[in-house]
Amino acid sequence: MQTAKAAAAKAALDHIEEGSILGVGTGSTVNCLIDAIGESGLRLQGAVASSVGTEKRLKAIGIDLLDLNSTGTLDLYIDGADETNPALELIKGGGAALTREKIIAGASAKFLCIVDKSKQVNVLGAFPLPVEVIPMARSFAARELLKLGCDPEYRDGVITDNGNVILDCYRFNIANPKELEHAVNAIPGVVTVGLFALRGADALLVGHDDGNTELIDAQGG
Ligand code: 5RP
């Protein structure tokens, strides 16, 4: 799996413009991307990071960190995913960075998602859907999520970079990802849900165990 992640990450280098500002996601596949950028010698004007962990890694390879409030729209955001369906709608947040990831994805002209083959599914939902919740709303939000038809579980011991908690939703029927994204986001106390359907990926780079990669765009081409 590590070979597949590294292959997708390396192939993503071809999509990054020299001297640009890059949005950078979070997770082990993105860590491969940061390593690949470091090894390639590619120069960036700077990067907007989706987590404290990513910030540290970018700093370590000498990339300037920029504030999204001063960059304007980014040309490109690159991030991993926990699951992707054929429409390139995603489940994200396995690494608890979903809110900042969704903000940067929304603020970017293009979202390139990098995954290993195991992340491709026909229907989203085998991976428990993460929901970031303000701490005082934890029990209330869990009861509301239960009403929407899932089994929410508190991710014990995890505090997000925003000071919030995560509820992982098991056994959600995600027949209509956009509808469910709206419904979960409407629960008071929910900061955001790890469904990326209203703003899914524009393109997907899939890495295989033999080191090959394939590029799929959102239109399925
Ligand atoms: C973090 C995420 C990650 O993109 C997702 O969990 C995939 O991680 P990995 O690349 O380690 O498989 O959404 O919040």
Notes on the protein architecture:
The chain is α/β, with parallel strands linked by helices and 221 residues long. The protein folds into 2 domains: 2-122 and 198-217, Rossmann fold (3-Layer(aba) Sandwich), CATH 3.40.50; 129-192, Alpha-Beta Plaits. The chain has helices at 2-12, 28-40, 52-60, 68-71, 98-106, 138-147, 177-185; strands at 21-24, 46-49, 74-79, 83-84, 90-91, 108-116, 129-133, 151-154, 165-170, 190-193, 195-196, 203-207, 213-217. The strands form 3 sheets. It has a 6-stranded mixed beta sheet with strand order 2-1-3-6-12-13. Strands 8-9-7-10 form a 4-stranded antiparallel beta sheet, sandwiched between helices. Strands 4-5-11 form a 3-stranded antiparallel beta sheet, covered by helices on one side. Helix 1 (2-12) packs across helix 2. The mean pLDDT is 97. It binds ribulose-5-phosphate.
Task: Tag the structure with descriptive keywords.
alpha/beta, 221 residues, 13 strands, single chain, binds ribulose-5-phosphate, Alpha-Beta Plaits, Rossmann fold, six-stranded mixed sheet, 2 domains, four-stranded antiparallel sheet
How many E-type strands? 13
Regions with pLDDT < 50 over 5+ consecutive residues? none
Structure ligands: ribulose-5-phosphate
Mean pLDDT, as a whole number?
97
Strand content: 25-35%
Overall domain count: 2
Per the CATH scheme, the topology name of the largest domain is Rossmann fold
First-to-last CA distance: 25 Å
General form: globular
Class from secondary-structure proportions:
alpha/beta
- Lateral arrangement of strands in the main beta sheet: 2-1-3-6-12-13
Q: Which value, in Å, is the CA radius of gyration?
A: 17 Å
The CATH architecture assignment of the largest domain turns out to be 3-Layer(aba) Sandwich
By DSSP (H or I, 4+ residues per run), the number of helices equals 7
Instruction: Provide the succession of SSEs.
Output: HEHEHHEEEHEEHEEHEEEE
Identify the CATH class of the largest domain: Alpha Beta
In percent, how helical is the residue content? 25-40%
Largest sheet: 6 strands, mixed
